[in-house]
Amino acid sequence: MAEIPSLLAHRADDLTRLHAADVPSLAQIDVRCGPHDAARLGFPLRPNTVSGDMTRGVLWLGPDEWLVVGLPGSAAPILRALEATLDGTHHSVVDVSASRAVIQMTAIERHRLLASGCSLDLDLRGGWLPGVCAQTLFARAPVLLQELVNATRIFVRPSFADHVVDRLLAVAEVRS
């Protein structure tokens, strides 16, 4: 399967100013199945949590929905493995890699920048720690946030990606 071109290459300078980077071609597989099958796969069953690592992580999206995230170019093997494991069960496994741009922010002030347009409590003392994720709105754009060690990933539809970058830049400039 061909790699997905960078959806934010034209914003590289802006992302650098935000201490952020585009993460192109990240494998993203949407999985719908029952909790029993999810447990068998090692998927997180607690809401808004993540299991796995940077090679292959699984984000809880809903009671019967998960997003499997893998390294660039790994979508096809992940898809095949999941289909084989879930064969004979009621499930859906769909490659959605092209449906979201991914921005990875490493700036120390990333939580404050995101909090400016998001209703979630992104304070580390409030529980926003590595291993959590949440679907929310940022400046009215639907996003999925994933907290990593020293970074936050923002998954956003390509049509909203420029808007999200513009909003982050505006807030960063006001705070400078």
Task: Give the arrangement of secondary structure elements.
Elements: H1 12-17, E1 20-22, E2 27-32, H2 35-41, E3 50-52, E4 56-62, E5 65-70, H3 75-86, E6 92-95, E7 101-105, H4 110-115, E8 133-138, E9 141-148, E10 151-156, H5 158-175
Describe the model:
By secondary structure, the protein is α+β, with helices and mostly antiparallel strands. The mean pLDDT is 94. The chain has helices at 12-17, 35-41, 75-86, 110-115, 158-175; strands at 20-22, 27-32, 50-52, 56-62, 65-70, 92-95, 101-105, 133-138, 141-148, 151-156. The chain has a single domain (9-175), classed as Probable tRNA modification gtpase trme, domain 1 (Gyrase A, domain 2).
Shape: globular
Mean pLDDT across all amino acids: 94
Number of helices: 5
The figure for the number of domains is 1
Structural class call reads alpha+beta
Largest sheet, in brief, is:
5 strands, antiparallel
CATH topology: Gyrase A, domain 2
Radius of gyration: 16 Å
What is the CATH class designation?
A: Alpha Beta
In N-to-C order, the SSE pattern is HEEHEEEHEEHEEEH
Find the count of extended strands (DSSP E, 2+ residues): 10
Strand order of the largest sheet: 1-7-10-9-8
CATH architecture level-2 label: 2-Layer Sandwich
End-to-end separation in angstroms reads 43 Å
- Outline the low-pLDDT stretches: none
Task: Tell me the CATH superfamily.
Answer: Probable tRNA modification gtpase trme, domain 1
Query: In what range is the share of β-strand residues?
Result: 25-35%
Estimate percent helicity: 25-40%
